[in-house]
């Protein structure tokens, strides 16, 4: 029996079968938004799953789908935890979300962004680095960029700069927000991969892969025939979700209330 682990089998209605690479396991983690407490909880559950169902060395990968920062209280702690992850026997990769994109553009001094960013969650991010959001709102944009760069560890900035936009895992495509329907994967634009909602969310066409994404908050996992949304609004709901792919099996782990003991199938 696996204690304190909540996993739910996904029943896709499509007749098409999707599979991960043979002998590999994926944990795709939705939007964290500064909730280090939930990240630690979910990583503990992933580690417990790996103890209960061991993989070969190097066979497990955790992919964070972006929006690690803003809104929640500990953006700095989330970046530090993921960028130095050592205590879970899995490789860790991260995608760039729209919130990280805006932060990087603010750090580069792009005009017309800093005050808006501070207003839609960036205030919590700067405070996690020991800065006053109120004081920063009274600064010039150039001064905001300078102050923030001085406060953020260079390793955190380098980690964000190294984050990608897409990861392919067998028949699955991992992105932050989604893809532009009808456009080949190799021709997708970073802005769509990090920001898109419509027409992606309502499109029912076969993309040639099953897209796992975050970005759009839904009440529970949003399972469709061509996509799976796993942004369960962690920063306000307390539920951080990971999709688990191994072979042709698709399950979920989350930080919601445990349902008894054992594994739900």
Descriptive account of the structure:
With 265 residues, this protein is an alpha/beta fold. It has a single domain (7-253), classed as Purple Acid Phosphatase, chain A, domain 2 (4-Layer Sandwich), CATH 3.60.21.10. The chain has helices at 36-52, 75-83, 98-107, 114-128, 133-137, 141-151, 154-161, 190-195, 234-237; strands at 7-9, 25-29, 60-64, 91-94, 167-169, 172-174, 210-213, 222-223, 227-229, 241-246, 249-254. The strands form 2 sheets. A 6-stranded mixed β-sheet has the order 1-11-10-2-3-4, covered by helices on one side. The protein has a 5-stranded mixed β-sheet with strand order 5-6-7-9-8, with no helix packed on it. The longest helix is centred in the N-terminal third of the chain and has 17 residues, at 36-52. The two termini are 13 Å apart. The model is unreliable at 1-14 and 259-265 (pLDDT under 50).
Summary of the model, kept short:
The chain is built from nine helices and eleven strands.
Distinctive features:
11 strands, six-stranded mixed β-sheet, alpha/beta, 265 residues, 9 helices
Question: What is the fold's blueprint, element by element?
Answer:
Elements: E1 7-9, E2 25-29, H1 36-52, E3 60-64, H2 75-83, E4 91-94, H3 98-107, H4 114-128, H5 133-137, H6 141-151, H7 154-161, E5 167-169, E6 172-174, H8 190-195, E7 210-213, E8 222-223, E9 227-229, H9 234-237, E10 241-246, E11 249-254
């Amino acid at each position: 029996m696996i204690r304190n682990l909540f996993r739910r089998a996904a029943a896709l209605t499509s007749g098409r079968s999707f599979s991960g690479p043979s002998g590999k396991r994926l944990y795709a983690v939705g939007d964290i938004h500064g909730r280090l407490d939930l990240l630690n909880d979910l990583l503990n559950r992933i580690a417990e799953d790996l103890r209960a169902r061991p993989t070969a060395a190097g066979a497990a990968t955790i992919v964070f789908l972006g929006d690690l920062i803003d809104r929640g209280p500990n953006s700095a702690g989330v970046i530090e935890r993921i960028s130095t992850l050592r205590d879970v026997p899995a490789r860790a990769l991260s995608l760039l979300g729209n919130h990280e994109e805006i932060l990087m553009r603010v750090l580069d001094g792009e005009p017309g962004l800093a005050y808006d960013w501070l207003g839609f969650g960036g205030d919590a991010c700067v405070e996690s680095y020991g800065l006053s959001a109120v004081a920063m709102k009274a600064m010039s944009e150039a001064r905001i960029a300078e102050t923030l760069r001085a406060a953020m560890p260079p390793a955190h900035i380098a980690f964000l700069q190294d984050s990608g936009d897409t990861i392919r895992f067998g028949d699955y495509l991992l992105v932050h927000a989604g893809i532009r329907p009808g456009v080949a994967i190799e021709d997708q634009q970073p802005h769509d991969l990090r920001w898109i909602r419509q027409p992606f969310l309502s499109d029912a066409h076969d993309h040639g892969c099953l897209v796992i994404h975050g970005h759009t908050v839904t009440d529970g996992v949003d399972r469709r025939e061509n996509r799976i949304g796993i942004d369960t609004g962690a920063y306000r709901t307390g539920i951080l979700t990971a999709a688990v792919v191994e072979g042709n099996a698709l399950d979920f782990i989350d930080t919601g209330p445990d349902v008894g003991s054992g594994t739900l199938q």
